[in-house]
Structure prediction request, 225 residues.
Amino acid sequence: DAKTTQPTSMDCAEGRAANLPCNHSTISGNEYVYWYRQIHSQGPQYIIHGLKNNETNEMASLIITEDRKSSTLILPHATLRDTAVYYCIAWGTSYDKVIFGPGTSLSVIP
Amino acid sequence: DSGVTQTPKHLITATGQRVTLRCSPRSGDLSVYWYQQSLDQGLQFLIQYYNGEERAKGNILERFSAQQFPDLHSELNLSSLELGDSALYFCASSAWTDVMNTEAFFGQGTRLTVV
Prediction:
């Protein structure tokens, strides 16, 4: 499994864009980049995933560099309810373990 | 609502006892994953099943075991419980194809307290 590294914590002002980086320099060709978040002891929630193209959904945008060694999750207008731990995961196929790292603790500040 | 149901939501038991945690995956999902999250710790992958067969194993203790039944629900059995087994236990499910990844959906967890 590719390892990912993320900053331990970040702050973001309410209403501003939150940009959460992730490094996955050893990602292999068949591994997707997934983002999940966990709000205070709730079950982790899927946000978005991508392989090499940028992706956008109703929750967020995912920007993956051309060499696929890093990515950025963008929450366009952060709200207080976006305060959570955000996990970046590299995951190949359903045969793989889905391994969560420590994630980034995002605090959205009023 | 993720569609993944875990029961019970809370469980308090004594050291040395055995408990069973249950997970019903989303309709149609064949893969089930179990995770343990201790206080202030990350999500630790325990084990994965696909359509009744074990697919991947993490740092699961020998005192712990799991299975997936023909109706695709899964159970995690924890025996000879110790205080350190107190944690949130999450189940997740995902669909599976051999050509495309799908996301995993998590239940709300079972909070186990060993006293």
In short: The interface with chain A takes residues 2, 4, 31, 33, 35, 37, 42-43, 45, 48, 50, 55-56, 58, 88, 90, 92, 94, 96-98, 101-109 of chain B (CB under 8 Å). The longest strand of chain B covers residues 43-50. The radius of gyration of chain B is 14 Å. Chain B has a mean pLDDT of 91.
